[in-house]
Design goal:
The complex is a heterodimer of chains A (277) and B (277).
Chain A lengths: L2 H20 L15 H17 L3 H17 L4 H23 L9 E6 L4 E4 H27 L2 H10 L4 H31 L6 H32 L16 H21 L4
Helix pairs in contact in A: 1-7, 2-5, 2-9, 3-5, 3-9, 4-5, 7-8
Chain B lengths: L2 E11 L5 E11 L3 E5 L6 H8 L7 E6 L2 E2 L2 H5 L1 H10 E4 L3 H4 L5 H12 L2 H14 L15 H13 L5 E5 L7 H16 L3 E5 L3 H4 L4 E6 L1 E6 L9 H4 L5 H11 L11 H13 L1
Helix pairs in contact in B: 5-6, 5-7
Classes of the chains: A mainly alpha (277), B alpha/beta (277).
Bound molecules: adenosine-5'-triphosphate and magnesium ion (MG).
The site of adenosine-5'-triphosphate has 13 residues of chain B, from helix 1.
């Protein structure tokens, strides 16, 4: 494999992650989700996620997916960017699980493509349907989930979580994790740049893996040292185990209406999915 | 003069066995600006951690306002709050101090832990305006520039108006203009009656101090910054301003020079006096 390509790819992935996780541009747009009270928004989106998890029909899932798209559209998020973000995470979660499910060993049924005769290995019709449903379900859940960070400033997410009764420890850990991901991503990027600027001749495969190993080692030491100092910095500023929050948002009629709408829609869709409605 | 800190025979060893401080004795008085100088690895940061009650000496005693400072004392919630309110610590690496989602939350962190909510909001807004970084309030602290980060990390401790300010290399990574701003800030602390302990390699900055200690595991010099020039400066490994070097060279050549200047203004004064004679 060409080394340059490898470097470039990592750089792109890091920049992409940076953009998708830490880019808060859309959280300030005047859209429907941005204007909603953060707690209600999080609850509503979670209701939709639960609805998608409970659905077994491809059609219902498509409807749920459309709802997510409409919400994104009404929140003034460019749809192309939105889809790119959603489909960046899909292969990570769904792809690995969905592929084996398509085979007759996991899902017996009508053969679609026969790969081996004896022992009999094939891709089955039922398997493919299951894999599509599964991937679609994950895609739908992710579509709703990414709307939270895209349309909400991170501090509002954490204080809403706090208001909803999520324990402090969980919030502190999420906060620090969020911060660390950023620091570490950029640390890796810096390290790669500095290596690139110092290395004169090209490294072969083995050498480049050795380099990567060293970089990861340095990363761990760095994380450990920083962790200690971050903790000291918190202590010296009066931290004693509990995180204090300021919550300035208030629930309005429109938020309640939206909550009701989402509950009714989700319940009807799930009932329809189960053939009750 | 009221004594703020008194250190008696303080020795500190890191758990891995490296001795950072060896039999340190020092006093810091109210409304003093004290500079701590010394080469890399001299134990300067460790000393500040001890002064801010984050770590405790293996041997010897630390007194704060006449009372002994120990782990037990700071376990008491009220005493801890009182101490944290009085002593602010600006870390060497601002990244370790910045762990909140926005600049506003960052600066509000200490006040929220130490004051009531209303007061916290008020002082946070005031500090941001005083430090002229109000426009940054909704930004992520992570992707600010080095100088902006430094200003935010200083604001973080100013928001509780501490009586004692500990600063670890406050001007490193700053451009000349920001460096001057920080120096002005330190002068204003002195005028406001605060006590400042600053660690630095920069003699220009140390020039602001009333007194200085040179550290290399042990205290190797104590006195006025000007008196440093009677020592062998090469051994101390300090950042000596070019203008001071010029005067030292002239003195060593046998010219009659009884005062070594640190700044251009001081040099101009001395030279114009000489020329007038
Ligand atoms: N967490 C740690 N664990 C073990 N040893 C440490 C740790 N932190 C510092 N030391 C060691 O203690 C000694 C003093 O370190 P300290 O950080 O106080 O130096 P410093 O004067 O602040 O140096 P610098 O000018 O580079 O900031 C050094 O020899 C260092 O290697
Ligand atoms: Mg240091």
């Amino acid at each position: 494999m060409n080394n340059k390509l490898f470097d470039k790819t990592i750089e792109h992935v890091i920049n992409y992650l940076n953009e998708s996780i830490f880019f808060e541009k859309y959280s300030k747009y005047p859209g429907i989700l941005q204007n909603m009270e953060s707690r209600i928004k999080i609850i509503t989106l979670i209701i939709f996620i639960i609805g998608s998890v409970l659905s077994k029909n491809i059609l219902t899932l498509i409807v749920f997916n459309l709802i997510a798209l409409i919400l994104a559209y009404l929140s003034k998020i460019p749809l192309l960017q939105y889809l790119k973000r959603v489909y960046f995470f899909i292969p990570i979660f769904a792809g690995i699980i969905a592929i084996p499910v398509m085979f007759n060993l996991m899902t017996p049924g009508k053969d679609l493509i026969i790969i081996l005769d004896s022992p009999h290995i094939s891709i089955t019709y039922e398997g493919v349907v299951y894999a599509i449903t599964f991937t679609l379900r994950v895609a739908t859940c992710v579509s709703f989930a990414v709307l939270i960070p895209i349309t909400t400033q991170w501090n509002r997410v954490t204080s809403a979580m706090n208001k909803l009764g999520v324990p402090d420890v969980v919030i502190t850990i999420t906060n620090l994790a969020y911060r660390y991901i950023f620091l570490l991503l950029n640390f890796v990027l810096d390290m790669m740049h500095s290596r690139k600027s110092r290395v004169v001749n090209k490294l072969d495969m083995v050498e480049s893996w050795k380099e990567a190993g060293k970089a990861i080692g340095a990363l761990f030491v760095k994380t450990y040292e920083m962790g200690e100092d971050v903790y000291y910095a918190m202590l010296s500023r009066g931290y004693n185990g509990e995180i204090k929050h300021i919550y300035r948002e208030q629930i309005e009629i429109k938020d309640i209406l939206f909550l009701l709408f989402s509950i009714i829609t989700t319940v009807s869709l799930v009932l329809f999915d189960r053939g009750i409605l | 003069m009221r004594e703020i800190y008194k250190l008696v025979d303080v020795t500190y060893k890191y758990p891995n066995g490296s001795i950072a401080l060896d039999n340190i004795n020092l006093n810091i008085y109210k409304n003093e600006v004290v500079a701590i100088l010394g080469p890399n690895g001299a134990g300067k940061t460790t000393l500040l951690k001890i002064l801010s009650g984050l770590v405790f000496p293996n041997k010897g005693e630390v007194y704060f306002e006449g009372k002994k400072l120990t782990d037990e004392v700071l376990k008491d919630k009220n005493l801890m709050k009182e101490f944290r309110r009085k002593v602010g610590f600006v870390f060497q690496n601002p990244d370790t101090m910045l762990f909140n989602p926005t600049v506003w939350d960052e600066v509000a962190f200490s006040p929220l832990h130490l004051y009531s909510k209303e007061k916290a909001i008020e002082v946070t807004d005031k500090t941001l305006k005083d430090m002229k970084i109000y426009h940054l309030k909704d930004r992520h602290p992570y992707n600010l520039s080095g100088g902006e980060k430094k200003k935010v990390s200083i604001s973080c401790i100013l928001s509780i108006e501490p009586e004692v300010i500990l600063m670890d290399e406050p001007t490193s990574a700053l451009d000349p203009k920001s460096r001057l701003e920080v120096m002005d800030l330190i002068k204003s602390f002195k005028n406001d009656g605060k006590t400042v302990v600053l660690v630095t390699h920069d003699l220009n900055l140390a020039g602001l101090a009333d007194r200085c200690y040179v550290l290399n595991k042990k205290v190797i010099f104590e006195g006025k910054v000007k008196d440093l020039f009677s020592l062998n400066l090469d051994e101390l490994n300090l950042d000596v301003p070019e203008i001071s070097k010029l005067f030292i060279k002239l003195r060593d050549m046998g010219y009659n020079i009884d005062e070594i200047p640190i700044t251009i203004d001081e040099a101009v004064n001395i030279i114009s006096k000489m020329l007038r004679k």
